[in-house]
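Lab notebook, design round three. We kept the backbone fixed and only want residue identities now. Task for the bench partner: fill in a sequence for the structure below.
Input structure tokens:
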């Protein structure tokens, strides 16, 4: 195996013409230079220098190796500088995947703080709901995933991941502002059994059906959309009622809608996920920390 330190010695010998001059340039002794050159020749399996009296010249193999040495050492130096920049958060890239309400409520605050603290770190954002976001993480298509799971739902298979719990998000009922329950402090989901429903994302839709069936009825879903503002707009137009996470409602200015506390409470846990090795990468760790701080800020506001 050719070592970089041996290449540096070979280049110095080729430039200065002798072991002693190379030693002075490198700050080491003439015997140390000789020893490293013997080790390099042993590694490549052929002589690199022809020694004759006080003169020393390169063999054909030595000339070939010196030609490549400059590029190799320059590339290694560039790599070392880039790695040092990434480790020191002067550079770095994080690929973040988040579900929509996390993108609007948590991500902006976290990334603004990250840019202020580490302006060289770049974060790309893609939206995906779990479990797709978790699949992207495991497949190497992102470095960090924001995800959620509902209390009481089947346990997620996250044992192979680093899980950072961020906050608990409560579901709320949305009714038109002229609805019979618009002025209520809270509502049991069974009180909405006969209403037309507007449902959200497929996973939230499944959770809605599960909660309603637990209350003894199956919701009549007239409209379904992944777009939270569209859900709120449909409710505001008097076309039905909905249940959404508080985080989703906070990210939109509801018009023509009343938000009513749902009892008994239905909650989902918001988490940030990454792989164990990625958790050690400085830029990923810094992004994770800022997401946690953003979640703390939301918790205090709540």
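Proposed sequence:
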């Amino acid at each position: 195996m050719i070592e970089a330190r041996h290449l540096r010695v070979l280049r110095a010998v080729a430039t200065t013409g002798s072991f002693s001059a190379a030693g002075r340039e490198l700050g080491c002794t003439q015997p140390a230079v000789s020893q490293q050159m013997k080790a390099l020749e042993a590694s490549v399996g052929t002589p690199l220098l022809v020694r004759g009296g006080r003169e020393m010249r390169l063999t054909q193999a030595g000339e070939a190796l010196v030609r490549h040495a400059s590029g190799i050492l320059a590339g290694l130096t560039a790599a070392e500088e880039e790695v040092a920049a990434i480790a020191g958060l002067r550079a770095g890239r994080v690929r973040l995947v988040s579900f929509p309400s996390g993108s609007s409520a948590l991500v902006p605050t976290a990334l603004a703080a990250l840019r202020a603290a580490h302006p060289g770190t770049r974060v790309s954002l893609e939206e995906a709901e779990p479990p797709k976001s978790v699949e992207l993480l495991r497949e190497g298509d992102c470095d960090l995933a924001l995800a959620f799971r509902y209390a009481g739902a089947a346990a997620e298979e996250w044992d192979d991941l680093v899980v950072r719990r961020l906050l608990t998000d409560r579901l709320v009922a949305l009714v038109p502002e002229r609805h019979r329950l618009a002025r209520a402090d809270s509502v049991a989901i069974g009180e909405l059994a006969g209403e037309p429903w507007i449902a959200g994302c497929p996973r939230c839709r499944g959770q809605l059906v599960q909660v309603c069936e637990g209350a003894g009825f199956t919701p009549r879903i007239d409209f379904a959309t992944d777009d939270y503002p569209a859900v709120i707009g449909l409710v505001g137009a008097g076309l039905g009622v909905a249940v959404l996470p508080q985080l989703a409602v906070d990210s939109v200015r509801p018009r023509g809608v009343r938000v009513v506390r749902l009892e008994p409470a239905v909650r989902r846990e918001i988490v940030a996920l990454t792989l164990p090795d990625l958790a050690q990468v400085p830029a990923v760790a810094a992004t994770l920390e800022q997401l946690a701080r953003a979640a703390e800020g939301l918790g205090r506001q709540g």
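Keep this in mind before ordering anything: The chain has eleven helices and twelve strands.
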